[in-house]
Amino acid sequence: MEEQIQQAVEIANSPSSDPVIKEQALSFVSQIKSSTNGWQPCLKILQLDTASTNSKFFALQVICERLPLLSDSEKISLKDMIFNYLSSLISQNKVEPIFLRNALSKTLGLLFVHCTLNCYATLVKDVLSLAYNGSTFNDIATDYYVRTLSVIHQEIGDQMITRDNRSQDQHNLLKDSIRANDMLDMTSVWKKILGHYTSDAVVNRSLADEIINNTIICIGSFVSWIEINLILDEQYMSFLYQFLGEGTNAKRRAITANTFNEILHKKMPPSKKLELINFLNLGGILNQLNINSNAIEFDVSMALAKLVNQIGEESITVLDKCSPAELGSADFRSLACSKILEIFPLIFEFLSNEFDDISLEVFPFISNFLLLLKKNITNETIDLSAINNDEILTTLSKNIILKLKFDEDDDGDDDDTIEQFNEIRSKLSVFLDSIVLLNETLALEVIINCINEFLFSKIGDAGSQPDWRTIELGLYVLTYYSDMLRNNVMNLPKTMINNSRPYFVFNEMLCKVITSSTQILINHPLIQLSFFELLLKHYTFFNNNNIQVEGVNKEDILLKVLNIFISNFGVFSENDKVKYRSWYLFHRFVKMTRPKVGDFIIEELIKSLLPLLSFDFQIVSNKNKLLSNDPSAALFDLDMTLIEESGSFESQLHVFESVGLLITLVSSDDGRINILENVLQPMFTSLEAAITKLSSSQLEIVGLVQVHHYLIAMGNILKGFESLRGQQFDQSKILNVLNQVSQVILITLENFIDFNIIREAIQFCIVRLYIILNNNNHSEKELLQSILSKFISCIMLNFEKLKVLEIISFINFVSQIFYQSSTDESSYILLSSLLAPLLSKIFMKVENDKNKVTDEFSKQEVLDLQRSVMSMLIAISNDHLNSLWLANEDNKAMLINVINTMLSYSYNHQGTDLSIVKLSILVLNMLCQGLGSGIVVDPQDNFRSDNNKFEQVNELLINNSILLVAELGLKVPAANKNLLKDAQFRNNITLEVCRLLKGIAHIGFEYPDSNTLQKKKSENATDSNKFTPLPVGFNEETCQQISNTLVGNFGFPSELAAQLVQTLVSTTDRNFMKYLIDLVEKF
């Protein structure tokens, strides 16, 4: 069996083994591991001189896994065999590979854990007896001794491992056993090991170094749960101090630093902890070493940084957790403060390290130090001036600011590195915030001096070329300074911020950066972006006349900024990241400041931007699936997100909108129109060329995408005009241009109606035109009505070509027109003719697509379409246009169709998404309130007429709605009372049918507020002359109809029906829902 196991292990570990045989070998060794007796042949393998290291390692693995499950007698037998194996290694003076030594040590450690309390209590002493006979050490045995102790700590003392209560209780007993039986011997022999193996008498120096290092690790591990005084003697400290300063052994130095960390971390009262810190005197010792953290090994520097941080944190904890009496003691406080002061030079050393990972190690101390000072900022009884003084805070502030600088080997061009460094910067900024709170005057002086040094000290120096990192740091600190003001870190009254001295100083420095830009601003992406981001953050400086800087002409400053934007430093940068971001920042800056400069300046800015208004791109990849062999048909249905192109179209749109904004700033009507025509004409020409290509069957995907881009670009130029009002320009002239734009757009639509991306782009343009013309309230609406009529007609004629998302977008646009139509007769007439055919097409689309649903995506599309159309139906009522339903016979017929459709959705609640059911009930409620009297009673509906009637209202709408309420509110939950516990059913169905019933009860009357039963405040209630509000009360006729239906159709007792109606009209929606639920639960 032993031979088979060895063969299987070798095959399993060999990379050249046959895969089939290797699989068999793996299966075999897995069986050995899981078998009850597999550990026995593994023990025998350990005794074989011919066994390979792989076989021995596997054998020890099997033994370790099986050991906890063995009987006490089996454990004793196993122990004897393991000790025999260990003794043979010792007698042969055989140094096994480290992984085998660790495996055997783990076996010994597990024997301790699972045997000490029941069958074998002397393992530690027995291993020690092999290592040390009282006068001499055996190297092999000593190595296993300290390794075994490390395993024991990992198993029972490592606080990083979470254990259940039962295991923890057992481990506590094992710790007690060590404290009682082995602690004195262990601590004594550790000292002797360190003395012996650091002497020159050692033969095997490599093994000796391992023994020393593992012994130091043992000291650090066990110190948390053994008597600490046993290792706090002069000889121990002498060894550890020696190792800590040992420059030639980096590994030992780092291990020793970690051990001191564990010693410092030992739990004890604050006074005892202060005694320990003072006794160890680590701050003084480390300062004597004159550490240069950048010159020593990374691991050593990391370990020392952790140690310095631990010294500081423990010292702060002493002050934070001590008793009031201790804190009041001048000697106690002085000693604790001195230990904090002692490590500050070391903190600054590691904070300035070139590796951020090392610097981060001292962040916790800095954070806790500043927190301690903030906690005691108003404490006048305790003097902490020793650690809270100008010298410390000034030095700390300067070191924090210097840490904000990019490293010398960082070119600032890697996004991931920049993101990581910005996370560090944000933490450092929090430290600066704390210092500002502690000493505002000092912090601001340091910050301002640093900004002046980094940005302005080299101005005028002939031939000096400042480092980009220094300039970037200056801009970053200036940005921090501005953010500090914006976030009011100083806690100034809000009315005082803009008039404060710090704010005035910032404005001075901002102006100085702008005026000295040619000498300060180096052509580096981070500097360029920081500069423009800073300008945008403080756009109010440029358009607020109350903000003035002595000796500065703000118009000149603004012109300087605009020129910098329109330069190679900004929108024409050779760096794509800077260029694209600058397009957005320039757009935002122009939009927020609307710069008041002369027409000539504006025209020059626009001329400068003209080269950016063309599209020079290539299609890099097109992942749209080809649905047809016809190349042109393949272009009909494109997803732009699946087309990758060169350039950045989305960013470029900001330039087009910027141009539109700038055109509106031209004061001359003729000048404005000329510029607009000159900007638009190349787009018109390109679109005409595309139409020609289409007619000659030469259109390719690049041409089609270009048409899309020009249309969207045109729409973005128009976006710049959206904030204008009619009195700001000559209406006739701008109308002529807008008419020309609309003609180009509509002609393009007619020619490209088959292409979805063109339809989407044109709707975007139409919406822009609609907003502009509506905003300006022209006396004649002919142009707007002409545009809407042509666009809607074209869409309706080609409705079957529209994708679901296009239909939803079109519905949303029509809903937008509803709002305007409540006061505009021409729009009302247009919508009255559109309503029936549009809804007919939408409902047909919904039914057709529902029958074709094959996946979750298409199902979701249908749901989105249903939600959109029902939102539009609700908008009709909300916008006071219920009269549309009665405007003509087609609309009346569609009203009947809508009611039946909503009833169908509602009754089919089990097979319909609950959100659709909820909306359908809400639509019925709105129709009942708006048309429940058979005529339009809404006083805000400007087109209502008593001559227009809905004759079937009672039987079709009112009665069916009452039946629906009874069905969904009473009958369905009575048959399945678990539905009443379903929050989704209650909130989407039960509550809505209660509101529907309340709406029926208040037909012809003001619907009460759903929460208070008070009359709802109408949106126009302040204008009492505009309309006469509906009366307050309820409709007795419909209330009687509700009662009769409950009695006649559902067998309600007349008293109960009357009670229900009374509750309906006298309680809020939710209270009535509770009544209804209680009613159902009783029957």
From TrEMBL:
Stretches assigned to the Exportin-T C-terminal domain: 334-1001
Xref: Pfam families: Exportin-T (PF19282), Xpo1 (PF08389)
InterPro entries on file: ARM-like, ARM-type_fold, Exportin-1/Importin-b-like, Exportin-T_C, XPOT
Exportin-1/Importin-beta-like domain: residues covered: 99-246
Cellular location(s): Cytoplasm; Nucleus
Gene Ontology cellular-component annotations: cytoplasm; nuclear matrix; nuclear pore
Keywords: Cytoplasm, Nucleus, RNA-binding, Transport, tRNA-binding
Principal location: cytoplasm
GO molecular function: small GTPase binding; tRNA binding
GO terms of biological process kind: tRNA re-export from nucleus
Family: Belongs to the exportin family.
Function, in words: tRNA nucleus export receptor which facilitates tRNA translocation across the nuclear pore complex.
Protein name, as recorded: Exportin-T
Species this chain originates from: Pichia kudriavzevii
